[in-house]
Amino acid sequence: MENATITLLKEKINQADALIIGAGSGLSTAAGFTYSGERFRRYFADFEDRYHFHDMYTGGFYPFESLEEYWAYWSRFIHCNRYMDVPHPEIFQNLKKLTENKDYFIITTNVDHLFQKHGFDKERLFYTQGDYGLWQCMTPCHPYTYDNEAQVKRMVEEQKDMQIPTALIPRCPICGKPMTMNLRADHTFVEDAGWHRAAKRYEDFLQAHRQGKVVYLELGVGYNTPVIIKYAFWRFVHANKQATYACVNLDPIQIPEQIRHRSIALQTEIGAVLRQLGGERL
């Protein structure tokens, strides 16, 4: 990692009129919310032994035969990735330092609620793809979501032999059909009133900073849904000649030729970059 590149990025952020952060799964992974390896085996060894999948993500698509088993898996998944603390909170603490005394907004495709858990202003957050902490009707018969913390914790505590008690299966209070996760997978995803308010705040922030010194800082964004953050950031920077695009990612970084001269690429660990950026201002 080149110190000169870090110094340049820090200068751009310090001088910026606004900071817009786009966060993908790489940020949560850097903070320790990994879906495979030792962490997976610690919490899902029984599912791995029986069904032979080797990571949490794959398990989320497994066709379990009963809702009791489905929710035994998903309650553990939610508990691990929504209600547990991250092993490396300093990642978010250092990122938060960057936003102090700065006009900022965060858009993220992550659904683990880590920004709010680490003290970021929820009025400056837009979770586009849902929240592990919310359920919705599977149909859905109405456009509302429901907090699941209390029931998820009961599911984790009371499950036996990889099944929850039938009485704990979550059902829609309106139509009685099973609930499902509030995660964007298809057209049934519920964009509730809170989602629309956050979307409006983000759009208003973008419009207010169409010009001027704006830094678009992309952290750990891949190519599963690049149109939401990555491609949008490229367009915004191309349209604003005073803007800077910065990308931090372990994977190879691609930048369009049209904005390359106003871009900063750091193919390295997010934690290391944030540790340096979050220090004393230059």
Automatic annotation (TrEMBL):
Q: Which Gene3D superfamilies match?
A: TPP-binding domain
Question: Its Gene Ontology molecular function terms?
Answer: histone deacetylase activity, NAD-dependent; metal ion binding; NAD+ binding
Q: Where does Zn(2+) bind?
A: C137, C141, C172, C175
Q: Taking every annotated instance into account, which residue ranges of this chain make up the domain Deacetylase sirtuin-type? A: 1-282
Per the record, the domain of life is: Bacteria
Q: Which UniProt keywords apply?
A: Metal-binding, NAD, Zinc
Output the SUPFAM superfamilies linked to this UniProt entry.
Answer: DHS-like NAD/FAD-binding domain
> What name does the UniProt record give this protein?
Sir2 silent information regulator family NAD-dependent deacetylase
Q: Which organism is it from?
A: Candidatus Fimiplasma intestinipullorum
